[in-house]
Amino acid sequence: MTDNWTIGSTVVTAVATGVALWVAGRGEYIRAAERRDERQAQARLLSVYVNEGDTEAVVRNYSNEPIREIRWYDAGARNSDGGTAAVVRFQDGERRERGHLPPGESFTVPLARFGWGDELPESAAPAGSTIWVTVHYMDAHGFWWSRTGDRQPVPLHDGPGEPLVHD
Questions:
Q1: Running DSSP on this structure, what letter comes out for residue 94?
Q2: Best CA proximity match to 113, nearest among 62, 50, 162, 164
Q3: The domain 46-155: what is its CATH number?
Q4: Are 73 and 25 in contact (CB under 8 A)?
Q5: Nearest alpha carbon to residue 60 among 68, 49, 75
Q6: Among 153, 157, 164, 160, which Cα is nearest to 59's?
Q7: DSSP 8-state class, residue 5
């Protein structure tokens, strides 16, 4: 009978230990997710878009904290089926980097305008396409992020990339 009690108590102890380890691991997983959400909170409050006339790329800080640094990284246009319609260029000579961006303020960069056909007005991209822009930026806590349009921000663990230049 003693052997049965020994085996039973060993099994119960092993199960209890396994459950305790699972609960501890799950708690750490939840805390890591909360830390990740806290880090992303400010990053999500930076808006990146092109104004209605497609003349400027705009980044706006809707958070209550400053953005330490912003770099316009790339821009392009997609046609209605999602394919690449054109490379969009920032106007020559325009500053594409900025340091401190206070809460509630915007930073804009004019887009270059081109002729896309004899009877079409000059614009930053072909008619019917949607322009997207990407910025790399450092939040108030020193974390680098990449954001393209209204997509979720993506952490840049190796820091920002050099802005792309299209010839």
A1: -
A2: 50
A3: 2.60.40
A4: no
A5: 49
A6: 153
A7: H
**Closest of 112, 119, 82 to residue 94, by C-alpha:** 112
Query: In this structure, what DSSP letter does residue 3 have?
Result: H
Give the tokens for residue 81: 């089926």
Whether 145 and 154 have beta carbons less than 8 Å apart is answered as yes
Measured between alpha carbons, how far is 27 from 45 in angstroms, rounded to an integer? 28
Angle 21-25-31 (CA atoms, 0-180°, nearest 5)?
145
Token pair in block for residue 35:
């830390």
Instruction: Return the SS3 of 29.
Output: helix
Token readout for 41 is: 């909170």
Take residue 69 and report the two structure tokens written for it.
Answer: 């640094």
What is the number of H-type helices and E-type strands within the chain?
Answer: 1, 9
**Domain limits of the chain?**
1-44, 46-155
Q: What is the pTM of this model?
A: 0.68
pLDDT digits (tens, 9 = 90+) for 71-105: 888 777 777 776 666 667 776 666 678 889 999 99
Residue 9 is encoded by which pair of tokens?
């108590």
The two three-digit tokens of residue 28, written as one number:
């750490």
Determine the 3-state secondary structure of 166 from DSSP.
coil
Element (H, E) at 48: strand 46-50
- Supply the Cα-derived Rg of the chain in whole angstroms: 25
Percentage of residues in the chain with pLDDT exceeding 90?
20
